[in-house]
Every structure is written in structure tokens, then in C-alpha cells.
Write a structure and sequence with these properties.
The protein is 47% helix and 13% strand. It has helices spanning 14-24, 40-43, 60-74, 97-125, 146-166, 202-215, 223-234, 247-266, 268-273, and strands spanning 3-6, 28-33, 50-54, 79-82, 128-133, 171-178, 242-245. Strands 3-2-1-4-5-6-7 form a seven-stranded parallel β-sheet, sandwiched between helices. β1, α1 and β2 form a beta-alpha-beta unit. α3 (60-74) runs parallel beside α4 and α4 runs parallel beside α5. The chain is globular and about 60 Å long.
Length: 280
């Protein structure tokens, strides 16, 4: 029986889906949320197999306290799922500075804080899994979500390096890149006004906002199926380094990588010409 520590627990979101999928396998779950009262009824039937803890992942003291409590109550954390995150939309030029910092604080620096709090226990036991929820935006920048894309690109880089660093310690690391999934994340766009400060980008961002609102409730991805796919991937030998979730995501990621390779290959001669001549 493994113990999971999952951030970003909200009803109908990926955090709850991970918890449901882990519980299906007989594991135990610590699900954290900024509003834990929303999960009390869901958790009640599972008894001691579930703990719901309050956690704002951008508060470093709360992160340390939640991890310590989970380890004390459950005897250790076997699987960490860094799921908490959110995407604010806006142009690169016109997004307010505080919104840029909030985007990185939640989607990148908070992930680091939780990971660094959990790693000592995993190192001591010489086993564990870290699952970082990235996004298609971590591979392919999304227009209107430039800073969210940048934060997810940073998650991809940290995940790749962390994987190499902790592999000798018995710890495995997986990046998960979902596309459009039917979660609560899209619902908020209807109530979130456009605050763009540069008029030249307003039309583009109005279209971005409308597209997000129109998708709500009809996204192709099923969060529970996605979480089950992650658990199945973790059981593979060897497991993948990254897992793209959703048909739309798979098509977007593979076409992006093919196009990047084609573009880079066109400049091979120029790339090699930058070296000193052979023998010098």
C-alpha cells in the first residue's frame, strides 16, 4: 500500500481524479487543497485511507507543515503528484508584473517547494515517485498564455534534470503533459474579465477567452482516465520519462517536435560552422 501526496485538490479536477485512481488500486491518499471543506464529503467513505489537508502551495511554511503531517500520519510519502496550478491569460507585453510573478509562483516555484520538502523522506527510504503535472504548453507555447507556457517549460527542464539526479537514489520522476481535459479549470474564464493593458492585443485575447469558455464541458479528456493512464505508465518497465495525455495533446506535441527537428536540421551546416576548424 503506497501513500500518495497530491496537491491541487478540487472537486472535479485532476487532483481528485488522481486520488480516486490511487484509491482504486488500494493505496492511501493525502489530498491537499486551499478549500479542504469542499472535499470532506468525498473523503468520508474512505476513512483512514484518506487525509484532506489545507494547503496553499505558494506558502512555504504551509508546505513544510503539510508534508510533515502527512509523513507523521502515514509513515512516509511514496508518490508525490505536483498538480496545483493555474493559467492566467494575457499578452507578453501587456501582462501586469504581479500577474507574471503569480504565474511562476504557483506553477513553478510552488512545485519546487513541495518537491524539496518531500525529497528528504524519499531519499532516506531510497524509493519514491514524483509526478509533475506539466502541460502541452510546456512543449508548445500557447498564444495568449505566454507566461503560463514559460512556467511549464521551466517545469519540463527541472523535471528532466531531477530525474537524472535522483535515479541513483531509487526515486523516479515523470512529466505529464495533458491537453484539454474536462475539469473545473475552464469554468473560471466566464467570470474573469479581460485586463489587457495594450489595446493592440485585445482582439486576440478576446478570441482566446471565448475559445476557453466555448470548450467548457466539451473537452475531450477524461481526468479519471488520465490519472489511470499515469498509474499504468508508472508500472511499466522501464517507465516513460513523459506521458502526453489526450489525443489532441498527442497530435500537438508530436507535430511540434517534428517541426522543431525539421527547423533545426535546416541549419545544420551553420551550426557546425561555428566550431574551430578541425585540428586547431
Amino acid at each position: 500500500m503506497r501513500t500518495w501526496f497530491v496537491t491541487g485538490g478540487t472537486p472535479g479536477g485532476f487532483g481528485q481524479a488522481y486520488a480516486d485512481a490511487a484509491l482504486e488500486t488500494g493505496d492511501r491518499v493525502v489530498l491537499t487543497a486551499r478549500r479542504p471543506e469542499e472535499l470532506r464529503e468525498w473523503a468520508r467513505p474512505y476513512g483512514d485511507r484518506v487525509r484532506v489537508l489545507p494547503l496553499d502551495v505558494t506558502d512555504a511554511a504551509q508546505v513544510r507543515a503539510a508534508v510533515a503531517e502527512a509523513e507523521r500520519r502515514m509513515g512516509g510519502i511514496d508518490v508525490l503528484v505536483n498538480n496545483a496550478g493555474r493559467g492566467w491569460y494575457g499578452s507578453i507585453e501587456g501582462t501586469a508584473e504581479d500577474a507574471v510573478r503569480r504565474t511562476f509562483d504557483l506553477n513553478f516555484f510552488a512545485l519546487l517547494a513541495v518537491t524539496r520538502a518531500v525529497l528528504p523522506g524519499m531519499r532516506e527510504r531510497r524509493r519514491g515517485w514524483i509526478v509533475n503535472m506539466s502541460s502541452v504548453a510546456g512543449v508548445r507555447g500557447v498564444t495568449g498564455f505566454g507566461y503560463y507556457s514559460a512556467a511549464k517549460h521551466a517545469v519540463e527542464a527541472v523535471t528532466a534534470v531531477l530525474r537524472e539526479e535522483v535515479a541513483p537514489l531509487g526515486i523516479r520522476v515523470l512529466a505529464v503533459e495533458p491537453g484539454a481535459f474536462r475539469t473545473h479549470a475552464y469554468a473560471g474564464f466566464a467570470d474573469e474579465p479581460l485586463t489587457e493593458t495594450v489595446p493592440a492585443y485585445r482582439r486576440m485575447l478576446q478570441d482566446v477567452r471565448s475559445a476557453m469558455i466555448d470548450q467548457d464541458g466539451s473537452q475531450p479528456g477524461d481526468p479519471l482516465r488520465g490519472a489511470r493512464a499515469v498509474i499504468a505508465a508508472m508500472a511499466e518497465d522501464p517507465p516513460p520519462h513523459r506521458l502526453v495525455l489526450g489525443s489532441d495533446a498527442y497530435d500537438a506535441v508530436t507535430s511540434t517536435l517534428r517541426a522543431a527537428l525539421t527547423d533545426i536540421s535546416r541549419s545544420e551546416a551553420a551550426s557546425r560552422a561555428a566550431d574551430f576548424p578541425p585540428g586547431t
